[in-house]
Amino acid sequence: MTRHLRKMPLTALFGFAVIFTYACVAIFAPLIAPYPETAIVGPEYMPWSDEFLLGTDSLGRDMLSRLIYAARNTLGIAIATTLIAFILGCSAALFAATMQGWVDQVISRIVDVMMSIPTLITSLLLLTIFGTSVLNLILIIALLYSTVVFRIARAVAMGIVVMDYVEAARIRGEGMFWIMFREVLPNAATPLVAEFGLRFTFVFLTVSALSFLGLGVQPPLADWGAMVRENASLITFGDLTPLLPAGAIALLTLAVNFIVDWMLHVASGLKD
Amino acid sequence: MTQTPLLTITDLVIQAQSDDGPKTLIDGLSLALNKGEVLGLIGESGAGKSTFGLGAMGFTRDGCGFASGSVIFDGIELTQASPKVRRGLRSTRIAYVAQSAAASFNPAYSLIRQYSEFPVLAEGRDRSAVEADAVEAYRRMHLPNPEDIGFRYPHQVSGGQLQRAMTAMAMACKPDLIIFDEPTTALDVTTQIEVLEAIREAVREFNTAAIYITHDLAVVSQMADRIMVLRHGNLVEEAPTAKMMSDPQEEYTKSLWAVRSFKAPAKPLPDAASTPLVSLKNVTARYGPAGPDVLQNVSFDLHKGRTMAIVGESGSGKTTSARCAMGLLPRSAGDVLLDGVSLPPDYHKRNKTQLQQLQIIYQMADTALNPKQKISDIIGRPVTFYTGLRGRARTERVRDLLSAIDLDPNVYFDRYPGELSGGQKQRIGIARALAAEPRVVICDEVTSALDQLVAEGILRLLVKLQQDFDLSYLFITHDIATVESIADDVVVMQKGKVVEAGPKDQIMAPPHAPYTELLLSSVPEMDPGWLDRVVQKRALG
Amino acid sequence: MHAVLKMVVQRVALGVLTLLVVSALVFISVEFLPGDVAEQILGQSATPETLAALRDQLGLNTPPVERYFDWLGGILQGDFGQSVISQRPITELLAQRLGNTLSLALLATLISVPLAVGLGILAALKRNTWVDRTINIGTLTAISFPEYFVAYGLILIFSVKLGWFPSISIVSGTVTFAERIHLTLLPALTLTMIVTAHMMRMTRASIINLLALPYVEMARLKGASQRRVVVVHALPNAIAPIVNVIALNIAYMIAGVVIVEVVFVYPGLGQLLVDSVAKRDVTVVQAACLIFASAFIIFNLVADVISIVSNPRLLHRK
Question: Chain C: nearest CA to B507, how far in angstroms?
């Protein structure tokens, strides 16, 4: 393991550095941000200055502070959603792979139907019905992405379940929980961890996209996707400002992708 | 008059790149091969046979390269030659026959299309003339329907036929040298014999030089004029076949030859009136309610303390019968009795005692042990599960079991399977079965995936454990030599039916049932004249 | 019946079944609304009498199953019902916009597919060289970007700074073909960038897997040149995986189109959908979702059928 860490390519190192920075910003937001999240501190659309390092937004709030606080909100939502999606998807997958038979068939068919509509479309439909609150957002996206997690976790689990050592445990008379959690899960951990990173990026992008469309985090809370929308008109004046929150999203996704790419490379044992 | 050898290899070193620096696969090998000569290259897995064979054509796999030495084919130095020159030699002067024909034929093209690819491309011949040649070649290989078979696709043709089609393809441009890389290893004995015959005829007819790579001693003695023994990339011994067979010099060579001489001590015949320990009576089984029967009316008895070998080729139903006995495949008719008491068809319905008394050891040790569990847990869990021992008592028991399988408990207690060799992993599989304190152990091809020497060690261990723990074995195998070695009773199976059953000496001696005759006579013997004799005999009878 | 034909028919049947199930789900989801469509339409001015009258008029008093079949029947004849907000027939709203979205998607596909497949094959052949590594980092970067980041970035460069293209793509019915291309190029490029990156990575992975197979090594051992190995031996077996990759990405594009249309204010189905969601115009949302879902299902169906038909094991029976 340490051997791999030493030979990490620059891209992965970059990725870890970025993630660490974001984590610090999110955790220590109140200590870092110069101004409060939702307070109006000056005139609207001020350019970058010493007083407001990144200027003010459409209502006169400090851009930099909002960017910092948004790290908390956006990341928090994305992580919570990914975790729920994972727990849901992995449990269902382990269950289906261990039980097999009609249990597996029924769950797989349900997942197939859920996956036959693009995620964004379904979330738009469901948000119309149930209303756009942060909780709804988290639950709906988690449910939808649990289907992808299910597919992948099931594929991994199915590969393990046919192994002789699982059969040996079965004919010993081991119960379902033992087989799921002591025989199958330890061998599924590595591919699933990489998958977690990958799913996180998709969840993150989808949550931000919905916020960008006005359907996610509601004002006055700061959220990167919503901030792009709030300040979009500035683009026509050649002002970079709307690109900042968008860039924050892009940078984090890039960092995670670099790390996942490296993990997959190591796991597949490819020779360079 | 000495002729210049066709192929001269001098001190060849092939290395592979790895994270820890270059790894030597071939460590300074030399050979001289004359036109029309057949060289047998023999060794265990990892000896470097394939790498050397490919090296003889000037080819190295991704990540490998020629570190030093020379390979001179008809005056051309292959290690220095440009890729273009090396490519130009392939198919036309040097050809290769792969181990798995099924994987080496392109699924998108017909056989004949692949046959004619290089005669047309490299020699500029006319396609229809080449295709006529192909039909002749298929006829020489004794393939059924030679006129039509070429137009089939690889997945429509059986393994043995594909292997012969591949040999025919290799000869399409009448090359000077063919490299055969374990061409019959994946085939059943009865198919193997046809392929061996075809290869030998073809090589003789065109006076082609050949390098024949295999791990099977008896096969190499049929095909080769000279034999080279490889181990870990080094040459152990080289001699003409007859001399090598009768008078090997090196210890390692002798140990390879001696493998088949282990014989378990004979046991007295069981009392015919006593209840067999395990009994299958008219067992029929199928996969799924509408599938064909995979077992039909299978009956045999295993008496206490004896080893019963269930022998047959692939698809014979030998493993399936065992799985039926274990309850993994519920039988659709018939009965399975343990000590006279009927066992439920499905293992879910069996009680703990019943499950305990019947244990199984798997063929592939890699998939039989959970890589994320320590040895102490792999063996310890059944101990706790069946005997209830925990804590110190359990540790003691696990250590005793490790000693019983000849592995030092101090070394192996905390190891993971990934740190063990194939033979050691198989021993752990045995210990796991023993942990349950069973009466019957089913050994499912437990030595088939192991090298000869390691396999012999496992067989000796099993015999010893049988005496120490009063075990009875159902030993599934396709290898006749193993049957001779350790079986007391034999069941011969073919296509889901029992052909013959009885004490070993009775089954292995004539008169035989026709299929048994076919099976036994297809097993290569360590006598260079064996193949000729069998071919002649079959041509007559 | 020939194995291939049988499998194709089975797959098509499955596709039709999925479409029906999805349409039912889309229909049922509306039932979860607190209150019903009539309350939505009348809003604040609803009284019990007006509600009852409107419900009668809209046929809301019939049982749900019957209403479902009425709705489905209507759709199959081209009638998508009425907008809750504007009372106008939805079919009118859809027609023009569907055409716009399709032309945008088509333009993006025409650019991205050849580019992605070509680059993917190139990267696979030149595996682990600097060419491959550069392409790898490039595509990894592209797939990390949200669509609006790329969109606003392109607008900033090509629209504001360079002035080559408009930042808003109002395409009406009266534009010429050339004008249409000019207006839709930036949105199409946005879509292309990200989709190409995904497709290229997947193509590269499939080709690498293919090149590791034994029969490819066999081709080299027979003396085939690298070019011949790839073109004659590998490519015919690569059709199925590559087609799958393309279909997967069309699916991805369907989601991306929504964002792109919003950024560029492009009058397509995606923008209609988002507007309707904001206004809670349920019936329009239903209709638009159904169309997107159907497109997705049909593309996957076509991809699967092509996979089946190009599989030599199925084409030539045992």
Answer: 37
